[in-house]
Design brief:
Layout lengths: L5 H15 L6 E2 H11 L19 H8 L1 H5 L3 E4 L2 E4 L1 H9 L3 H17 L11 H9 L11 E4 L10 H7 L1 E4 L13 H11 L5 H17 L5 E6 L2 E7 L4 E2 L7 E7 L6 E2 L5 H6 L6 E3 L4 H8 L20 H7 L3 H14 L1 E6 L5 H13 L5 E6 L6 H4 L1 E7 L7 E7 L1 H11 L5 E6 L6 H5 L2 H6 L5 E2 L6 E2 L5 E8 L10 H6 L1 E4 L10 H8 L5 H13 L19 H19 L7 H5 L1 H7 L11
Parallel strand pairs: 4-6, 12-19, 12-20, 13-16, 16-19
Antiparallel strand pairs: 1-3, 2-3, 4-11, 5-9, 6-7, 7-9, 7-10, 8-9, 14-15, 17-18
Length: 606
């Protein structure tokens, strides 16, 4: 079972940094690690010897493993056996005194480093592979074991596990493709998949490439193979290189020594997180995070220290971003922390408060540099589950008969989930604009459950397979309170999302127009007029946001009048429709100016 969590990794790293703080020239690792252990003693688990290496303690290797993120973050340098701190590392040690915070920022630095690597050097989901390379301090050390879930209980409707256990192998299909040599580069695999599976969707092609790459290139002799048949779990070890049989159901094979065929254990014997890992929908999935659990139940000795890699998070914003979008840094940090905590957040408020703009700016500044992606989808009253997740789409048959066939086509959520699952070390964000304009229960269906229980599998409406939401997939919704008050949102949604308000008469939006006008050296009057307008309206849910007036045209009296007449007054006319109010007399520029006191200093900005 996993024994080393994020906080422990932070504690171990900080002990190493503390020793190096007084050594500007660095220290040899053989001297450094024992001194660091005096400050951060090994736990009983960390002090054990590896079962297969009598006399070799776990802790020195765990110390090396723990510093991976700091190296990639640019805080720690390892050169010819000597470790030393950079200036950034010294600052990080002094700034992030809490071990959780220290490790979280180290991971963010790692993700930023990873995002800068050429695509050819970093395939999706390969954080574990890089971690292994970083753990090896000398060329004489060997790659650590990994564990893989390979499915064989339902291969095109056939259970092939009997052959696996009898003949000693595991396998994947892709019979449409020719024989492929082991260690074929991933780019070549992509070309083959595109050539031989031209009718497959881009998502399906990408998944095929990832699985083939894992089976042919990443899986190595000594790795664990896990497979399931109902509630029974079987574990074996890879004993050789991949081979090509050409058979339809077991096309590509790896020799495996199965360990517990006669005495399989049950899913219920596993810790909950390891059991959830068995519910992954892909044909081949990395289970290394739970290797120790499977090895222990199958009676297999393993050297993996059982470290839990932290979840991917959206990096926290900095002062530069706060200054760019003119919002307080502490509010932005809180918003991102809420997103990281629950994985879902709704930005809500009246029109013109910059909800969608803010969501996109956060993703551009924080998600993309961390190696992730974001996508925007807009809900509307006719939007349904079939549009959002997956649904049947008609197409003409290719045989010229004029008949119609139906394809199961993935929607934006399923496409984004597939990409996130392929790259679990980086954050992926789906922005749902106007989230409250659709019937959410109808749109989300069984996926509502998954927003709260990440990693758990549910059955799907249109396909036989199960599905789970990756933990590195985040959702940012935007909600216009002029359309629907937050008080009317159903309890199921309120429980699954955090809600962060953006209102013109309250921080952080209050004063935003004045700050924007000042930045662009424009007159302050539009900000005073907007404040008076919202005071007159008197309802924060229907206040007018500053973005209507964040245009250089407001410096021209004609430009300001045009925006007011064509954008703001029609909005208010719709809101007060049927009440018999004279909108222009009450909310027009002349009426508002008559109520404003002249500023004490005409040049002053608010």
């Amino acid at each position: 079972m996993s024994q080393v969590n994020r906080r422990r990794i932070g504690e171990i790293q900080r002990s190493i940094f503390e020793v190096l703080m007084d050594r500007p020239d660095g220290m040899h690792v053989q001297e450094l690690l024992p001194r660091a252990e005096e400050l951060c003693p090994a736990t009983p688990f960390e002090n054990e010897h590896y079962p297969s290496q009598p006399g070799v303690r776990r802790y020195p290797k765990i110390q090396r493993f723990a510093t991976i993120t700091s190296v990639k973050a640019g805080w720690l340098v390892k050169a010819k056996g000597t470790w030393s701190l950079t200036e950034a590392g010294r600052e990080a040690f002094s700034t992030y005194t809490d071990p959780d915070e220290f490790e979280r920022h180290a991971v963010q630095g790692y993700q930023a480093w990873k995002a800068e690597q050429p695509v050819s050097e970093f395939d999706a989901g390969e954080e574990a592979e890089d971690a292994e390379a970083a753990r090896l301090e000398t060329s004489s050390e060997e790659r650590d074991q990994r564990a893989w879930l390979v499915r064989g209980a339902n291969v095109s409707g056939t259970n092939v596990l009997g052959r696996w256990f009898t003949e000693g192998f595991c396998s994947i299909q892709w019979a449409e493709l020719p024989e492929i040599a082991p260690h074929t580069p991933k780019a070549e695999l992509a070309k083959l998949v595109k050539e031989y599976l031209p009718n497959a969707t881009a998502v399906s092609q990408g998944l095929s490439v990832g699985i083939l790459n894992r089976f042919l290139n990443e899986m190595e002799v000594g790795d664990l193979v896990v497979t399931v048949d109902g509630s029974r779990v079987y574990v074996g070890q890879v004993t050789g290189e991949p081979t090509y049989s050409g058979e339809k159901l077991v096309t590509r094979q790896r020799p495996v020594s199965w360990k517990n065929v006669d005495q399989p254990f049950l899913r219920s014997d596993l810790p909950p997180d390891a059991a959830d890992g068995l519910r992954g929908q892909l044909t081949l999935t990395d289970l290394t995070a739970h290797l120790a659990d499977f090895a222990a139940l199958a009676g297999i000795e393993t050297d993996l220290p059982g470290i839990v890699l932290p979840d991917a998070v959206v990096p926290l914003p900095d002062q530069a971003l706060a200054e760019k979008i003119l919002l307080p840094l502490d509010w932005l940090v809180e918003t991102v922390e809420l997103l990281n905590d629950k994985r879902q957040i709704v930005l809500y408020g009246p029109p013109g408060t910059g909800k969608t703009y803010l969501a996109q700016e956060l993703c551009k500044a924080l998600v993309e540099p961390a190696g992730g992606e974001y996508e925007v989808v807009q809900f509307h009253p006719s939007y349904a589950y079939e549009d959002f997740f997956e649904g049947l789409r008609p197409r003409l048959n290719q045989d010229g008969s004029g008949g119609v066939a139906f394809d199961l086509v993935p929607g934006p959520l399923r496409r984004m989930a597939a990409r996130a699952a392929e790259n679990p070390a980086s954050p992926y964000v789906l922005i749902i604009d106007e989230i409250n304009r659709a019937n959410l229960a109808k749109v989300f269906g069984e996926l509502y459950f998954l927003l709260e229980y990440r990693g758990t599998q549910v059955a799907l409406q249109y396909s036989d397979e199960t599905f789970s939401l990756p933990r590195n997939l985040f959702v940012i919704g935007t909600m216009n309170t002029a359309d629907r008050s937050i008080a009317l949102v159903d309890a199921a949604m309120r429980r699954r999302f955090y809600f962060q308000g953006l209102f013109p008469t309250a921080p952080p939006v209050e004063g935003l127009l004045g700050r924007w006008l000042k930045r662009h050296a424009l007159p302050a009057e539009p900000a005073r007029l907007l404040a008076e307008l919202n005071t007159t309206i008197g309802d924060p849910d229907f206040a007018v946001g500053p973005s209507y007036l964040m245009s250089k045209k407001v410096a021209d009296p004609h430009g300001l009048e045009r925006i007011w007449r064509t954008a703001i007054l029609p909005l208010l006319a719709e809101h007060y429709f049927g009440e018999g109010r004279d909108i222009d007399a009450e909310f027009g520029l002349a009426a508002l100016r008559s109520r404003l006191e002249p500023p004490s200093d005409a040049a002053a900005q608010p």
